[in-house]
Amino acid sequence: MTNQPLTPDELEKALRAIGAERYHNLHPFHRALHDGKLNKGQVQAWALNRYYYQASIPAKDASLLARLPTAELRREWRRRLEDHDGTEPGSGGVARWLKLTNGLGLDRAYVESLEGLLPGTRFAVEAYVHFVRERSVLEAIASSLTELFSPTIISERVSGMLQNYAFITEETLAYFKPRLTQAPQDSAFALAYVKEHARTVEQQQSVLNALKFKCGVLWSMLDALDYAYVTPARIPPGAFRPETAA
């Protein structure tokens, strides 16, 4: 950052550069997942741990919704809640993620209990929820901008997993298809808000740092999985062990 504020287009360019360098599609665990180099137990561990992130998104968005100053913003974040929680039992992104874990042979009650979470997953997700709850509205919205890059990783993940894993079906991966349209809609709104409201050098630096933080959350979740489940496996006490999966 210079001593002068960036133009809105320059700020967008800087945000996209963070994603190009730090988004977790570059992580070795994601590359292994995409390329078919993981066994079923390792894929189960990924889905189980990622469930906590997915299930925490509505809580994160609800904490932000309560602080939003305009009806326009509240409508936007209320829609996000509906996307993830659904409008009736069995609908929404969290329910679709449970279809993924079920399709991988994991007991739903065990997944929802969170008993098998890696400590690193728990700490990363809770840090993200805390960040959105405690930081400014501008920073909280900026932290959601990883959605700018998610269509790329979703496309890679779906094509790679269908191609490389016999135990994966299109039905198992039903979570991802709606996100190909939801994520661009969400990120377009958030990006427009950030470009309009991050006007000073300090505000712009705060939104850049917020996106770096969120990229770090997602990266650290894969670090934890890589450390625990990729050879040599170092699974911490109490965490999910593939050989005990239901």
TrEMBL record:
Which reaction is recorded as catalysed by this protein? 6-(2-amino-2-carboxyethyl)-7,8-dioxo-1,2,3,4,7,8-hexahydroquinoline-2,4-dicarboxylate + 3 O2 = pyrroloquinoline quinone + 2 H2O2 + 2 H2O + H(+)
- What EC number(s) are associated with this protein in UniProt? 1.3.3.11
Tell me the Pfam families matching this sequence. Answer: TENA_THI-4 (PF03070)
Q: Which residues form the Thiaminase-2/PQQC domain?
A: 13-223
One annotated GO molecular function is: pyrroloquinoline-quinone synthase activity
Alphabetic keyword roster: Oxidoreductase, PQQ biosynthesis
Q: Biological process GO annotation list? A: pyrroloquinoline quinone biosynthetic process
Q: What class of enzyme is it?
A: oxidoreductase
Indicate whether Magnesium appears among the record's keywords. no
Source domain of life: Bacteria
The pathway noted for it is: Cofactor biosynthesis; pyrroloquinoline quinone biosynthesis
Claim: Oxidoreductase is one of the keywords in the record: yes
Which PANTHER family does this entry report, sorted A to Z? 4-AMINOBENZOATE SYNTHASE, PQQC-LIKE PROTEIN
**What role does this protein play?**
Ring cyclization and eight-electron oxidation of 3a-(2-amino-2-carboxyethyl)-4,5-dioxo-4,5,6,7,8,9-hexahydroquinoline-7,9-dicarboxylic-acid to PQQ.
Similarity annotation: Belongs to the PqqC family.
Recorded protein name is Pyrroloquinoline-quinone synthase
UniProt source species: Acetobacter ascendens
In the UniProt record, the gene name given for this protein reads pqqC
